[in-house]
């Protein structure tokens, strides 16, 4: 066999990839790709690089791909050009996740796939080459990229010399298992990392890749399933308590603690801090509100967070309305339930339920910080946010579900003022995921992400001038908005007000042709022709692009403010304490959950008038309920509104106090507490009562009441 390379030899490799690749198992991929990887590793140890500038040097024999060692080359270096091309698009280091191009039909297409003869740029090129090879740069990381492309072609059966099939691979690169269901997630993850356009994200050691590929089956540690103990009397109480506790965790789609979605009742402060600018390079990182060391220090300083410093109210007119709605809802919760349910979400977990719905992306708040939002009146209203980072906790519903699904244990609380603790949480969760499920990659998103979109505008300048003037018959004006309800030009005022003041926009609605008509570019267009083609780049905030079920994220760049349904979560800790003391005798628990038939209550004996301490009107059934309280028996009083339950409770409290005992009266809603306290205050017994709604807010009034009493 001749060792000279030729296009015919490369064509033979392509035919072999198409015939062999596709719906093949992971073991076949390892057997076919491992010899080539080890040959490239040996070439690198000799200080050379493999002849992988395309596939013309490759040969196929005995079911393996290889190359003649005499074709190994010396590395070619052009790092200056590589660094210049790989430099981030913005001086603030914003992470550009996708580059899109709008076609003539305005459909967005991924622009990271380049044409075969296109000049060098950060993109995927046909014919199994790396973008840096277009710059005459070839080193070990270049070989890693080409090897990843060969493995990707083998795993999917796609021909990367065909631009359309290459585009299909690029779009599915983050979830290759969708193209080959027999592909191991570990191998899919290796291919994804090896084919990254960013050189620093590729594996730096090819030998470790070859080792991981050879032992991919050992990357998973199977969960040990403990045997369920028999439901005897010793653990019956624990089982009941656990079942009752689990009922508090509502895991339906209605629970925003698990399935979070952005609505008008919450506010994404990170998006609200991104200014509307023409060029994304004008955005400075210090302008944006996201979870970093600076924000953690601000939360821990004890000073209110001045939102006017971060948020762009002039660019997002709806933001002030959303914050007002959030503030009023928090105030209603305080009045009704006695505590605020407002939380500042400093981190989100974007994950998948791989057992029940692997294709569905779930956005769940991860770190919840208690917060109080205040509004200060002025020429321009401003908002301040008080937080308690020491009381921050991991989302209890998410913590429960991850424990049930993957045996992942997360801490209950976290210090939100420590960025180091947050990084430690990411490390701990990554390690537990690696033990629980192979191939799942957890990324910590530290930098706000944007998508760049190129659009081509083709407009006639006379139509452009008419749009600027907005004049004509039947056209009216309101606060700078021109509107009309005519048949020829139907521009309703309400639609325009909604578009200007209400509808949120991810990217500024300013293209080059809608700028000031006196702009020099427009002047040049006016002088040159009646038709102008202008292509410019826009940006849109990326809030978590779908990258496959095995790619999870802890997103620090979506700081949000929202009211959650948090009332039931306060009972979770109580059940945990009860379960910890399950061995001790709990009389009330046994009475409630006893399997024996409950005994019928005997009517209590009627006490003499001198021993009845009723302070409010009472009927015989209410009197019987008060007297039954003296027997020490547990019972339930129920009835519709207006039947005297609060009146009975007030008399019951007075009966205990008059006999030298104390009473703890608790209720889910604050209004019920206020009603009973008001009834006791009306009869002059407020001095023997202490009303506490919030342990922090009511501390000073409680101490003042004690001082006045003593």
Brief digest:
By secondary structure, this protein is α+β, with helices and mostly antiparallel strands. It has helices at 7-20, 26-45, 79-86, 140-156, 163-171, 185-194, 206-214, 233-248, 269-272, 293-300, 318-337, 396-406, 419-436, 461-469, 493-502, 520-528, 572-580, 587-593, 620-628, 645-658, 670-682, 699-709; strands at 58-61, 64-67, 95-102, 108-110, 266-268, 305-306, 342-353, 357-376, 382-387, 393-394, 441-445, 449-460, 476-478, 481-485, 490-491, 531-541, 551-555, 560-563.
Instruction: Give the helix level as a range of percent.
Output: 25-40%
Mean pLDDT: 79
Strand content: 15-25%
What's the count of strands? 18
Residue runs with pLDDT of under 50 for 5 or more positions: 1-5, 220-231, 457-465, 506-532
Write the layout of secondary structure elements.
Layout: H1 7-20, H2 26-45, E1 58-61, E2 64-67, H3 79-86, E3 95-102, E4 108-110, H4 140-156, H5 163-171, H6 185-194, H7 206-214, H8 233-248, E5 266-268, H9 269-272, H10 293-300, E6 305-306, H11 318-337, E7 342-353, E8 357-376, E9 382-387, E10 393-394, H12 396-406, H13 419-436, E11 441-445, E12 449-460, H14 461-469, E13 476-478, E14 481-485, E15 490-491, H15 493-502, H16 520-528, E16 531-541, E17 551-555, E18 560-563, H17 572-580, H18 587-593, H19 620-628, H20 645-658, H21 670-682, H22 699-709
Parallel strand pairs: 3-12, 11-17
Antiparallel strand pairs: 1-2, 3-4, 5-18, 6-9, 7-8, 7-17, 7-18, 8-9, 8-10, 12-16, 13-14, 14-15
Helix pairs in contact: 2-4, 2-7, 4-6, 8-17, 19-20, 20-21
């Amino acid at each position: 066999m001749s060792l000279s390379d030729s296009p015919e030899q490369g064509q033979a490799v392509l035919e072999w990839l198409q015939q062999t690749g596709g719906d093949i198992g992971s073991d076949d991929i390892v057997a076919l790709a491992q010899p080539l990887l080890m040959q490239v590793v040996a070439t690198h140890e000799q200080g050379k690089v493999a002849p992988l500038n395309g596939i013309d040097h490759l040969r196929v024999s005995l079911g393996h791909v290889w190359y003649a060692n005499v074709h190994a080359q010396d590395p070619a270096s052009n790092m200056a050009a590589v660094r210049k091309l790989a430099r981030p698009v913005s001086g603030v280091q914003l992470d550009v996740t996708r580059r899109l191009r709008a076609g003539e039909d305005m459909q967005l297409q991924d622009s990271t796939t380049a044409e075969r003869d296109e000049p060098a740029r950060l993109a995927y090129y046909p014919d199994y080459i790396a973008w840096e090879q277009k710059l005459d740069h070839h080193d070990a990381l270049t070989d890693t990229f080409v090897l990843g492309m060969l493995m990707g072609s083998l795993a999917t059966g796609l021909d990367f010399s065909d631009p359309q099939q290459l585009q299909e691979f690029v779009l599915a690169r983050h979830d290759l298992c969708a193209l080959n269901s027999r592909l191991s997630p570990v191998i899919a993850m290796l291919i994804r990392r090896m084919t990254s356009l960013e050189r620093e994200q590729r594996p730096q050691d090819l030998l470790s890749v070859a080792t991981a590929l050879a032992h991919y089956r050992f990357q998973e540690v199977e969960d040990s399933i403990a045997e369920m103990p028999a439901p005897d009397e010793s653990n019956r109480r624990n089982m009941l308590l656990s079942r009752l506790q689990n009922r508090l965790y509502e895991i339906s789609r209605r629970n925003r603690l698990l399935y979070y979605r952005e609505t008008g009742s919450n506010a994404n402060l990170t998006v609200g801090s991104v200014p509307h600018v023409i060029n994304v390079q004008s955005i400075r990182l210090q302008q944006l509100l996201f979870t970093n060391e600076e924000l953690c220090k601000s939360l821990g300083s004890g000073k209110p967070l001045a939102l006017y410093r971060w948020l762009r109210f002039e660019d997002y007119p709806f933001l002030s309305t959303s914050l007002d709605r959030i503030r009023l809802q928090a105030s209603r919760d305080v009045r009704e339930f006695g505590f605020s349910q407002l939380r500042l979400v400093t981190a989100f977990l974007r994950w998948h339920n791989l057992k029940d719905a692997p294709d569905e992306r779930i956005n769940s708040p991860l770190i919840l910080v208690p917060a109080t939002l205040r509004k200060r009146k002025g020429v321009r209203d401003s908002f301040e946010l008080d937080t308690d980072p020491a009381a921050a906790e991991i989302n209890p519903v998410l913590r429960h579900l991850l424990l049930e699904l993957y045996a992942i244990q997360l801490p209950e609380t976290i210090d939100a003022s420590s960025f180091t603790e947050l990084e430690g949480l990411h490390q701990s969760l990554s390690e537990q995921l690696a033990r629980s499920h192979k191939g799942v990659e957890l990324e910590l998103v530290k930098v706000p992400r944007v998508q760049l979109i190129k659009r081509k505008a083709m407009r006639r300048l006379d139509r452009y001038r008419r749009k600027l003037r907005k004049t004509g018959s039947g056209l009216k004006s309101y606060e700078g908005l021109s509107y009309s309800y005519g048949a020829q030009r139907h521009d309703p005022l309400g639609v325009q007000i909604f578009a200007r003041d209400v509808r949120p926009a991810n990217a500024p609605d300013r293209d080059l042709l809608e700028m000031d008509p006196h702009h020099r570019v427009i002047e040049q267009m006016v002088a040159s022709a009646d038709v102008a083609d202008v292509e410019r780049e826009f940006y849109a905030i990326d809030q978590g692009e779908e990258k496959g079920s095995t790619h999870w994220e802890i997103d620090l760049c979506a700081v949000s403010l929202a009211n959650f349904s948090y009332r039931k979560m306060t009972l979770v800790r109580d059940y945990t304490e009860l379960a910890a003391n399950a061995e001790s005798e709990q009389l009330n628990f046994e009475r409630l959950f006893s399997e024996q038939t409950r005994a019928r209550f005997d009517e209590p004996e009627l006490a003499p008038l001198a021993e009845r301490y009723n302070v409010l009107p009472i009927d015989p059934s209410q009197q019987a309920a008060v007297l039954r309280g003296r027997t020490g028996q547990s019972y339930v009083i129920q009835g519709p509104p207006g039947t005297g339950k609060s009146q009975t409770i007030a008399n019951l409290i007075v009966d205990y106090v008059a006999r030298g005992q104390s009473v703890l009266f608790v209720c889910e809603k604050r209004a019920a507490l206020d009603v009973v306290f008001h009834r006791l205050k009306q009869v002059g017994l407020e001095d023997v009562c202490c009303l506490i709604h919030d342990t922090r807010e009511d501390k000073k009034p409680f101490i003042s009441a004690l001082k006045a009493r003593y």
